[in-house]
Amino acid sequence: MGAVTTVRGPKQDRSRATRQRLLEAAVACLAEHGWSGSTVTVVAERAGVSRGAAQHHFPTREDLFTAAVEHVAEERSAALRAMLSGEGAVQGGNAAPGGRTRAVVEAIVALYTGPLFRAALHLWVAASNEEQLKPRVTALEARIGRESHRMAVGLLGADESVPGVRETVQGLLDMARGLGLATLLTDDAARRDRVVAQWARILDDTLGRGPGGTGGHGDS
Amino acid sequence: MGAVTTVRGPKQDRSRATRQRLLEAAVACLAEHGWSGSTVTVVAERAGVSRGAAQHHFPTREDLFTAAVEHVAEERSAALRAMLSGEGAVQGGNAAPGGRTRAVVEAIVALYTGPLFRAALHLWVAASNEEQLKPRVTALEARIGRESHRMAVGLLGADESVPGVRETVQGLLDMARGLGLATLLTDDAARRDRVVAQWARILDDTLGRGPGGTGGHGDS
């Protein structure tokens, strides 16, 4: 925080911090109480911000919640990229490709099984019946979807010029979304781990890096 | 209907028909208006049934909507089994295994992309925040999940005694669920078809029936 303070005025900092608190409270509120229990007033209270200040940042309920889901999605995917590039550097080029793929699949699936996904799910489902919300959430979902796909391709080192690879990665992201849904009502972690382990093996085979694949080490 | 009429009294028939109309109206209502717009009164009106008659069949809102999703899920999976056993008979044992797998994957994915899935999704998401609904929907989801898995294993002719096969089929069902979610706000059919085609190929390879697999014909 110190470094930022030196280049911005304290007023701008406060405004930025308020906005940040509102966005995080909005995601937590959506995840816990769903769309019908999530209003600007409830979020302002949770964030310890006056209703007027909240409305200064986000004039409508739709503004607040779509911005919140987008903000947290961006933060999460930046954290994911950082984590995995750090991990790649530690393991170096000698890591078993299977281990790397599994770590990537685990990290992608983790994006869809936390409070952010739960919040996004409430927003998507509400948008399917609310005309005011639908176009904004549809556009947001398309942006997040494209970004997730780009990220997954990069992390897996997948070559999309090979026929079928694009659809393989898309199917993986659909599976991650389905695993997120499966965890909505019950703790599905043990089953999910086994599915992730198996589908990481399948991905390595399909992307040509498993035992016998062109990019694999072939002896484990 | 004729055959049923001979073994039941007309009063039982009317009661059965009323119940059926209520269940179907409940699913359509959930899919269109979500949980917050779905009450016993709205469904009774839609089904052309008095509110009293509706409450005779389903004392609470939770009774009505969980029974509705369960009923339609059973009908859909019975129809799927019938359709695919008919198709199997037509194609016979000489059909390319890839074609059969793709038909099965398409049929399973279709279960998750229609109004039933949309209705179930509204119910699940509502249950995640409503204590009255949660235990019933959790139990219902577990029953539907087990039945879907059993059905998928049977239709794919998958041998679950082989390590990894169980998780392969589970991952496929998770993917189908994710594809259902992707179709909530936009028409995702073209992308979905390509993902299904690719993942049917991957499944054939993984289950050992693709070109080069132990059960395949190996020359196409």
Order of helices and strands of chain A: HHHHHHHHHH
Instruction: Return the CATH class of chain A.
Output: Mainly Alpha
Largest interface: A-B, 48 and 48 residues
Radius of gyration of chain A: 20 Å
Kindly state the mean pLDDT of chain A as a whole number?
86
Total beta strands of chain A? 0
The secondary structure category of chain A is: mainly alpha
Keywords (chains A, B): DNA-binding
Organism (chains A, B): Streptomyces xinghaiensis
GO molecular function (chains A, B): DNA-binding transcription factor activity; transcription cis-regulatory region binding
Protein name (chains A, B): TetR/AcrR family transcriptional regulator
